[in-house]
Every structure is written in structure tokens, then in C-alpha cells.
Amino acid sequence: MDPKDKATHSPARAALLRLVPLALLLGALVALPRFSDMAFLNAMVLVCIAALYAMGYNLLWGQAGLISFGHATYFAFGASCTIMTMAAIERGSSFPTPLLPLAGGAASFLMGLVAGWFATIRTGVYFAMITVAITELVRAIVQRWDTMFGGEAGITSIRMAWGPIGFQKLIDVYYFTLAWTVIGILLLWFLQRSPLGTVIRGIREQEERVRFLGYDTHALKTLVFAISAGVSGMAGGLLAFTNESTNVALYEGAYSTTVLINTVIGGAGVFLGPVVGATLTTLFGYYVANLTYYWLLYMGLLFMVIVVCAPRGISGLGVDAFRRLRSDAPVPWGRIVRQAAGWLAMALGCIMTIELIGAVVQPSYGALARSSGVAWPPVRVFGISWMPASPLTLGGIALLFSFGALMLRDGVVTARRNVAKLAEAIAGKPEPGP
Amino acid sequence: MDAFLVALLNGLVYGLLVFMVSAGLTLVFGMMGVLNFAHASFYMLGAYAAFLSGRYIGFWGGLIVATLAVGLVGLFSERLLLRKVRSFGHTQELLLTYGLFFVLEELVKLLFGPTPVAYRVPDELRFTAFTIGNSQFPFFRLLMGATALLMFFGTYAALRFTRIGLIVRAAVERPQMVSALGHNVPIVFSGLFAVGSALAGLAGAVAGMYYPTSPAMAHELGSIVFVVVVIGGLGSLNGALAASLLIGVMTSFAVGVESTFGDLFRALGLGGLALPGLEAVQFSSIAGVLPYALMLLVLLWRPAGFAGNRA
């Protein structure tokens, strides 16, 4: 927070300013089932799980500065252990159903202790590579160990009633997931505010200095890794609880990628940033995935745009905008409109290109072309039929891209400079000597 | 003995292939501290480029086109993308190359579908090079090994005996110092990045015929290559070579082992440790695990890797 903000607003008011929106949000989430249909409620359950997963993940990144590329292992292990506990309850164990996510969390915490001990021997990119390798190691074992993890078929179990709560209706599952997500996020919040959190941020900034102060930084990093794994495992447990099944496919790279993308899109630097990212991508994915086969490609492109143009993510942009509004600087409406229009044009152009290419390269398209006798049969995008080879369509796409580039011309200037530099570099490259 | 020789040769060929991909990665990494997550994607792109161009200009032409095309892709991704985020630090570079890895995989799925394409060894190369005992050694495997060896000696000679090589070696060790001596390190870096990508592309073009050419091949080899870089040590070609060969040979031999986990536990005197179902799992079926297990051991014993001197 700016010193200027502090001077004009008292801390109590600042705290209120933060708490009131959060309380309203929580109220809205609690009241949601009264207004929502089943499909949206189902999507919100997935949002809660993705949010808790991303928050656990971001403990490692945002606080300790360590980026894991293999967190799916802990998420999936939590799910597997939860489903095993559910199966045990089904067989008559007295483990209380409401505490199920803790079983997954504890299992992943223990696994995180071991994996984290190895991974945090090194930092930076080495850490990243080791997390990838550990994930592959675990995946290779789990996929062979069918009697334990169920193999391709997976393990299924059912949610057993506990006391008055039946856990059969979706609304029960929703409140259960929401409650555990809030508990998990509160836990992370207090951890961040605790002395441990301070030391961990110290390690991120200057590890040697913290070691000099007498802390065992390797042990601390291992602990953070394990807590992060544990919270991710809780999220995995919630997924197992919701789906009443798990599968070894959970251990694959996709779940490591999703959480990383969610965190980057939301912004790792703001406490609730990952929640923003998880909400956006999960909701979009839930509704858009039915409309296109290439949802993952769009997500990857969005990810790259965010990394290059907004390294602090959406929540970082939001924080900047909020600061700007509260300071006296004039709002640059022209620039905002220009950028928005530019990005919109670029996005439309990309979607058109990808959907058209995607439709044209399908084997069925070739068959259609042969049977109908038309060289380029029409393709439906946005509910409109386009002729893929007509100059109108191609010109329209080119127009969208040119318009977008013009609107984002800051970027165009840079690109022009880069090309000039490249040409200069190629022209002036020194001859290799003898 | 024959089986031993065949396993050894297979392991060496696979190890050399892994080395072809990891060489570019470890040099780029040593020089600028950029871990290129998308490096294995360039390997995949090489296979697809050779598959696509090979249909029109034949196998050998396809190899050349794939190498050049992937080199260009590497050059552009360095100049147009990586440069943009350099000022934000290594984290942002790592994320960007990860995004590239993801997007390239999805793009290939968009264009060629998620299943392997029919990129096969051409018929004129489908013959047996020599026979050891009863097992025939296909010529194509020999070709893969020879390509990798040629590449190794080529790279080694270029690094050892040319002026550019001298600058590159110096820049891997002390980039700031080389820059202070008046060499344009960013240009050298771009060139190295392009050459490293081209080599990965060549490796993909050769290997894609033998192993399935699918969007998953980047992921499969990528993690092995990381293991090689961690084990071999920062920016060290020799370390990467040793690690690649070790992993190749080890995996190749493990596939032939018929023992199960149960045998291991009994041998260790832990026969009572009845882990459900794990007893019957054969080692050979999880031979892929060995490189990762080796990495964990090396981390314990020598965190900087075989040839690493910087942590």
C-alpha cells in the first residue's frame, strides 16, 4: 500500500474496506443455491475446488518464491487417499465423513515432506525440473500399481451419511466444499500473517541472510512445500468426495498445468489472486468447453499474453487500477478503450483462424468436400456459416488482426524495433574466425 | 552375451538421442540461465516438420527442412518472445517457455490430431545392419546413433576449435565478463538458441520415425531431458553426455530384468513387508522410473550434478 494511502485513510478503515467486499462475497456464495440452477451450482463446486488447489499452490510460489511444475501429484494423491478412506467408511470404518478432506490433506502433507525435502535441495529452475521429475516418478509407479490405485478404471465409492447430513444432494456437496475451501483459505491467510510466513518471505528474498540468522532454511522450505502439498491434497480430496471416484489420469500433467495457469492468470502476487484465476478459467471451461474443441489452446494463448503483457496477472491489473482511481491521476480512457478494442479484435481474429483451421483439417471435412463436390464447404463459427477460402472471410480475419495491431500500436512499435535490430544483427554478424 | 550386447547398443543409441536434445538445452541454460521448457517441443516439431516435408521431398530432404525450420522457430521465439520478458526476470522467462510448450502441443493437436501420425522409416532404409547371435540390429538404429555421434563431434569441434566456440564457452562460464570484453553476448545467445533448437529438431526428425510421432512426445522426452540436465550439471556438455548415456543404458537393461518388487523386498530381507499388489509388479514395466530415481540419488550425493561446479 502506498504511504499516501496510509496517510489519508486510517488502518481501521482500510481493514473495513477489505473485509466488507469479502463478507458480501461470502454471503452471496452462501445464498447462491437459492437462486442458481443445478448446472451452475455444479460449476461452482468445481470453482471452489480449483480455488483451494490454486491457493495451496500459491503458498509455495507467492510466499516462498518456488514454482512447482508438478503439483498434480499432491492433488491426485489427496484424491486417491480420500477415496480409499471413503471406501473404508463404506466398509464400516468410523471415520467421520465431514473430515474426509483432512485424510487427503494429511496424506499429501506426508508425501510433500518427502518430495519437498528432495525438491528444495535446489532452488529456481532446478527446483522446477525436480518437481517435474518427481511427478513422472510417482505417475509411473501409480499407473502400474493397480491394486492400490485402481488403474485406468479408477476407484469408486459413495458418500456415506453422517448423523443428520446425508451428503446425497448437490446442495450438501456445495456447502461442504465451500466450507472446506473457506477453512483452507483462512488457514493459509493466518499462516501468511504468522512469524513463519515472515521467515518464509525472507527466504524468498534473501535466503543466505535468513540462514545467517540461524534458521534451517532447507527444513523450512520443506515444511512450506508439505503444507502447500497438503492444502492441494485437501482440494483433491474434495474432488474425490464430489465425484465419488478417482482415476490415475489425475496424476497426469494436465492438473499441474491448470493450477499454474490459474495462478498466473489470477496473479501470484495478490493473496486472493489465484482464486480469481481459478474462478475465471473454471467457469469459462465449464461453459465454453462444450462450444469448442480448442479450449486448451485458447487458454494457453491467454496464458502467454498475460505472461508477456501483464506479469502480475488480472488481480495485479485490478490493484493497479484501484490505486489509480484513488490517486488523483487522470484516468487514461482513450488508452483503455484502444487497448480493449485492440485485444478484442485480436481475440476474435485468433478464434476465427483457429476454428476455421480446426474444422478444415478434420478428416471428415475432406470427406464432405469430396461428397459435396465443393472444394471448400462452409464452416460454422459463432453460429454463422463462413466460406473458408473466400477472400471475404480471409480479408475479414486479416482486417481484424491489422485493426488489433493498430490499436495496440505500442506493441507494434516494439515489434518494428525488434525486426530492425534483427536485420541489423544479421547484416553485422561477425564472420567466424579460423 | 548377445542379449547383453544388443541391450547395450540399444541403450547407447537411446542415450545419444537424449543427448542430442539435452545438449542445446544445457548450453542455453548455462549461458543465460534460461530453462527452455519448450525445448522438447522443438524436438516434437522436428518430427512433424520432417513428416510433412518428407512427403514431398523425400526422407533426406525432410531431415534438412526440419532442422532449418525448427532452428528458425527457435530463433523467432527467442527474439520475439523471450526478449520481451527478460527484464522481468528468470521466473517470467520460465513461465513463457512453459506457455510455449503448452501452446505448441495444442497447436500440433489442432493441425494433426491427438493421435500419432504415420511417420515411418522409409523402405529403402529398412534393412538389417548386422546380426549379433540371433538378434538383428536394424540399420535405422545405427543411423540414429550415427547422427547423434556426428552431432556430438560436430558440436564439440565447433566449441573447441572455432573462435565462435571459444566465445560461447566463455559466455557459458562468465557472461558478464565476455560482454565486458566487447562481445555481443545477446547475439551469440540468439545464435546458440537457434542452433540448439535446430539440433532438437534434427533429433526429432530422426527419432520420430522410430518412436511414435505424437503430440505427447514432447512431454515424454522433456522430463528425461530435465533429469539429464540436473544430473549432468549446469552448462556442461560432458556431464550431459555422461548422464544421457548412463540413463539410456540403464533403462535399456532394466527392460530386460524379469524380477519383481517382491524379489527385491525378499532380497533385502523385507519379505514380510507385504505392500498389496506391488509384489507382482515387474521392474521391467517401470523401467521408465529409473532415470528419476537416479536423479534423486544424485541430488543427495552431489547436488550440483556430475560436472557442475556452480550450485
Description:
The complex is a heterodimer of chains A (434) and B (311). Chain A has two domains: 36-271, no CATH class; 332-427, no CATH class. Chain A has 19 helices and four strands. Chain A has helices at 3-8, 11-35, 38-63, 72-90, 100-119, 124-144, 146-149, 170-193, 195-205, 207-212, 217-243, 253-266, 273-288, 295-309, 313-326, 333-360, 363-372, 391-407, 409-427; strands at residues 155-156, 245-246, 379-381, 384-386. A two-stranded antiparallel ribbon of chain A has the order 1-2. A two-stranded antiparallel sheet of chain A has the order 3-4. The longest helix of chain A has 28 residues, at 333-360. Chain A is globular. With 311 residues, chain B is an all-alpha fold. Helix content of chain B is 71%, strand content 3%. Chain B contains eleven helices and two strands, in the order αααββαααααααα. A two-stranded antiparallel sheet of chain B has the order 1-2. In chain B, strand 1 (128-132) and strand 2 (135-138) form a beta hairpin. The interface between A and B is large, with 53 and 59 residues.
CATH class of chain B, named Mainly Alpha
Number of strands of chain B: 2
Assembly state here? heterodimer
What's the rounded overall pLDDT mean of chain A?
A: 83
Number of folding domains of chain B? 1
Mean pLDDT over the full residue set of chain B: 81
Q: Element order, helices and strands of chain B? A: HHHEEHHHHHHHH
Kindly list the characteristics that best describe this protein.
heterodimer, A: 434 residues, mainly alpha, 2 domains, two-stranded antiparallel ribbon, 19 helices, 4 strands, 74% helix, B: 311 residues, ABC transporter involved in vitamin B12 uptake, BtuC, globular
